[in-house]
Design a protein that fits this description.
Metallo-beta-lactamase, Chain A; eight-stranded mixed β-sheet; seven-stranded mixed β-sheet; disordered N terminus; binds zinc ion
């Protein structure tokens, strides 16, 4: 109880300081949420901030002129691309289930806003009952630990794909990643060690609770999972990073993504997913799609496009 009180006081202090620094009397609301419903599930996305990614995304087979046009539409400005982060919270009649942990305080300064966003939305991290992890990248996993290196969601059970866990635990993981991403392995291992006690392994098609199922969408990482929320014939698919960019991932799924661990597998997954998502008319939530990250897959020419929910 006392730790919690201190934590909130510190939060207010930090928020107040940031507002003063910005020359504003009122802190900007971090809560950029949008809620949709599915049966008796209430599904809300919360912002965790954004990442500035280098625009040097690879597309070895792209026509250079087309490439330039696509990059502009995809939100490139100068050398960087601003990639937003949307974390999904599912409120069921008896649980609060988070999909991914956000980035936490130790990734990059533009991220780690999830706790503040949840708090603005009236959600106490202590009340989160389950967290489903899509994959072990920093913006999805590092938020498992808070400012004090304690569990951010201490009462929750964590659902992790065994394949994903094994990849990050493998002593060879470091070698398989480019040099600038090798600290991802150290960071992932620190978090996994901290959450292991409360962790449950899941695999293809496992149901976490009735109506919430995980399935493999491999390629972005070795064990990447997406989450399907289902009610009758209706569904919402929380994609993690299976489709990351509103232009590239939908219109040019075959182009390699620089952030995919297994680019060929990632491309095959995107193509299969787009066909399925279009056919099923599912609503989708993308971790890095423009806020609030909720939309559908529509036809465009011979391929597909992203349509944000109005
Ligand atoms: Zn990500």
């Amino acid at each position: 109880m006392s730790r919690r009180t201190f934590f909130l006081n510190r939060r207010e202090f930090v928020a107040g300081t940031a507002a003063l620094a910005a020359g504003s009397a009122l802190p900007l609301p971090a809560f950029a949420a949008n809620t949709v419903t599915l049966g008796d599930f209430e599904v809300t996305t919360f912002t965790d901030g954004h990442i500035n990614l280098p625009a040097a995304l690879r597309a070895p087979n792209a026509d250079p002129e087309k490439w330039k046009e696509v990059l502009e539409r995809a939100g490139r400005s100068g050398d960087t691309y601003k990639s937003p982060i949307n974390v999904t919270l599912v409120r069921t009649p008896d649980e609060l289930i988070l999909i991914d942990f956000g980035s936490g305080p130790r990734f990059v300064p533009t991220t780690g806003k999830l706790e503040a966003a949840l708090s603005d939305g009236g959600i106490d991290p202590m009340n989160i009952t389950k967290v489903i992890l899509t994959h072990g990248h920093p913006d999805h996993l590092w938020g498992a630990l808070n400012d004090f290196d304690e569990l951010t969601f201490p009462e929750a059970t964590y659902y992790v794909a065994e394949k994903e866990f094994n990849f990050w635990k493998d002593p060879d993981a470091m070698k398989s990643l480019p040099e600038d991403r090798q600290n991802f392995v150290v960071g992932a291992n620190t978090r996994f060690e901290s959450i292991e006690e409360r962790m449950k392994f899941v695999k293809e098609d496992d149901e976490v609770v009735s109506g919430i199922r995980v399935f493999e969408t491999l390629g972005h990482t070795q064990g990447h999972m997406s989450v399907e929320l289902k009610h009758g014939s209706e569904s919402i698919v929380v994609l993690g990073d299976a489709l990351t960019n509103p232009v590239l991932s939908f219109e040019y799924p075959e182009w390699r993504a620089g952030t995919d661990h297994l680019p060929e597998v990632g491309a095959a997954t995107r193509k299969r997913l787009l066909d399925q998502l279009f056919a099923s008319k599912a609503r989708i939530i993308g971790y890095h799609l423009p806020p609030p990250g909720i939309g559908t897959v529509v036809k465009k020419g011979a391929g597909y496009a992203y349509e944000a929910l109005a």
